[in-house]
Amino acid sequence: MVTMRDVARVAQVSATTVSHVINKTRKVDPETERAVLEAIEATGYLSDGIGRSLRTGTTQTIGLAMSAISNPYFGTVVHAIERSISRAGYSLLLADTHDDPVRERRAVRDLLSHRVDAMVIAPSGEADSVLDALVQRRIPVVLIDRIPTRERPGVDAIGVVNEEPTARLVDHLAQIGHSRIATITSDPMLETTIERLSGYWNGIERNGLTRDEDLVQVGVRGSEETTDDAVATLLGLPEPPTAIVMGNNQVTIGTMAALQHHHMEAPRDMALVAFDDFPWANIFRPRLTAVSQPVDELGAGAVSMLLDRLADRDLPPRHRRLEPTLKHRESCGCTGLSTGT
Amino acid sequence: MVTMRDVARVAQVSATTVSHVINKTRKVDPETERAVLEAIEATGYLSDGIGRSLRTGTTQTIGLAMSAISNPYFGTVVHAIERSISRAGYSLLLADTHDDPVRERRAVRDLLSHRVDAMVIAPSGEADSVLDALVQRRIPVVLIDRIPTRERPGVDAIGVVNEEPTARLVDHLAQIGHSRIATITSDPMLETTIERLSGYWNGIERNGLTRDEDLVQVGVRGSEETTDDAVATLLGLPEPPTAIVMGNNQVTIGTMAALQHHHMEAPRDMALVAFDDFPWANIFRPRLTAVSQPVDELGAGAVSMLLDRLADRDLPPRHRRLEPTLKHRESCGCTGLSTGT
DNA sequence: TTGTATGCGTTATCAA
DNA sequence: TTGATAACGCATACAA
């Protein structure tokens, strides 16, 4: 490996000067500078981040801990985050939590061992103990997707509004005549599931519909998908639903597959609305009426908060909620009103 | 920050002993070991990867350079790779190439600066100069998706067979009566595009169809999507095609959107077959007849080759081709034969 | 304008 | 069974 000393030797200067040339950190005689740059070129020297990190205490690396399994937006989120942080001169270290608290703990430990300067975490259910460790180490954290109820120093959060948009999905189904409206949720441990479910109940109540616990089914439990059972249960009810609110992307795919097994088609045999949109939702049939999350903005927003905090660690904790947008298409069954894009 | 010396002080031993306890690298008196473990617990010590890396020369980190923009399988590939390498005790450092040779260069430099132990690269068109630098530094590389024509020491590659499967897509369309079969390709700079295009021509010729250059349109050029134009050109032809072979996932989405603008529906107004499958292809309509890549196997295979090479750097270069599978569904227009899953 | 010396946290060598 | 010491590559305080 070619080190700074090698460059220094070739350029006939000290390592100090080489360092200063590379980092533009003090005035250097143009002549000397040229010699150094030439030596760098000649030797093919590339600065060693490890050495620098050990010395400076910063790795210019940001850790991302999230589950790739359950998050259909995984790629988009990673991309959005990567773009923002690389623009700021950081690299992205990835750790998959597999939607499992134990793996999540290990993932965060791993990122800490690599001395990431900050972390983005899309937490599974139980992130609290992990967070405490991070707060104690004073490492900047932004939680994505989940807004914690308790504020902690150094921990920011960004997510979308879940409750009211879900209620509005129910509103819409009620307005077009449905009275038996079911919901299939994602994992009940997830904060977002809880909020969306609460929105569902709000919708049921404010539209004067009968509150029926049987109409709520869980589509994901841990790493297990149970949408098949959920759909079967709903269809086996004495008075089955005529419409379903699907809690997220994963549930949507599962539910649609299950309905297909029962030879049912949306919106003819079942009205469907979903939380979470698909990028190709306009092209394939049925065109889903869905609440669309601003994924790019979530990623960019998360990084922006992180960079702010990196610049000033004593910033008060901030929690941001972005508004999702309703894409009104055809799976809900009122084709005339379609405005979706 | 709590270091090994802190632990040593608390445990009343030397830092050497602490290190040996942590790494189980020499015999330690059980009593001493207990004291050390207790001190670790008490101090909340976490070993510092930077210090270790500087000393040992290995970072236990693998770099992944690929484009998130153009690769619809991005998430799946990242996930597959992450899973394999984390099992082997490595972490994943991500660098987005944005499908641009300049950004790709920077991405690789960046990964090198972070001293990744090895790299997985999904190369854009011009990866050769980058590769030379890596070979020179003797850092293990596996190219994913693209099989280079020239072998290089220390560079493995894994991808799918592109030519024959594409030819078979043409076969199928010809057999069900199409004689004007077009193709919309991905970026012409990509190796896979070249191979698939070659397969297309093979198909045209071996089915005795007229060779017509107008039936080949480019759907992606660099970071620009031109499927709209491609479709418009095809439809404007004196004798328009009745079937289209779509070169990859991105092209498929673009083509279907464009066809929709022209109020055309598959397979009624246009038979469609695609290279690249969608995970939800069975649920939404039209159900695409598509060549499906074994994405998980690609990721796992790439990592497996890398680990082999990490164990023995002098292994001869290996190039692996995996067979994709044809998912015969409905968009090609011969519904009776559907076997897709 | 440039150079010397030191230490970041760890592990390997050598000695006890 | 354990410890003292040096070195990995770099950036900085200090000296010249």
Automatic annotation (TrEMBL), chains A, B:
Keywords: DNA-binding, Repressor, Transcription, Transcription regulation. Coiled coil: none annotated. Residues 2-56 form the HTH lacI-type domain. InterPro entries: HTH_LacI, LacI/GalR-like_sensor, Lambda_DNA-bd_dom_sf, Peripla_BP_I. Pfam families: LacI, Peripla_BP_3. CDD domains: HTH_LacI (cd01392), PBP1_LacI_sugar_binding-like (cd06267). GO terms for molecular function: DNA binding. It comes from the Bacteria. PANTHER family: HTH-TYPE TRANSCRIPTIONAL REPRESSOR PURR-RELATED (PTHR30146:SF148), LACI-RELATED TRANSCRIPTIONAL REPRESSOR (PTHR30146). This is LacI family DNA-binding transcriptional regulator.
